[in-house]
Amino acid sequence: MTSLMESLDKDASNQRKRAAVLQGLPWYMRENPSTIMKMCEPTDPEENVIKGMVIGVLSVVEDVKEPLPASYNDVALVIEERIVIRHLGDVPNAFVNLMGLQYMLNLDYPKDLKYTFEVIQRLFMGIGLDSCTPRVHSLKNIERWPRKMSLHLSQRMHLHFLSFVHCSKRKTNV
Fold this sequence. Notes:
Blueprint: H1 2-10, H2 14-28, E1 37-40, H3 46-49, E2 55-60, E3 74-79, E4 82-85, H4 91-104, H5 114-124, H6 134-140, H7 153-173
Parallel strand pairs: 1-2
Antiparallel strand pairs: 2-3, 3-4
Helix pairs in contact: 2-7, 5-6
């Protein structure tokens, strides 16, 4: 998560903030993101990278050491070890499509990422906001934090999370 935040220090555009929030969210919710988000280089055989992946996002980038790449060669959705949609452009767009596919295909959220998907559904998308688990409900109260304080890592992630939630709310209210 530290490397994600350091990448934002280089370029803090809204799209990169959204990508950082979505990539850091599983860590923040104390879940393992390796089952939902994989990164590979264009020369890597994709079949090996997505092996064992039930549902998730595959990012093809030039440098896999960069946690938040400036550009993507490809971003794809994977369901049951198969790439189902390609050329999604970036991580936020991939997550929107992933949530839509899960809804349309009536797929359950992965059990090991229960809270991550609950945050995306309930807080980012505003669906079923009244029935959150206690862990997710605690995130709803983040807005009470003072904004002018020296921020350590998790607090900075809170603020990026907040800006993502506020942008999502504005889009749904328009």
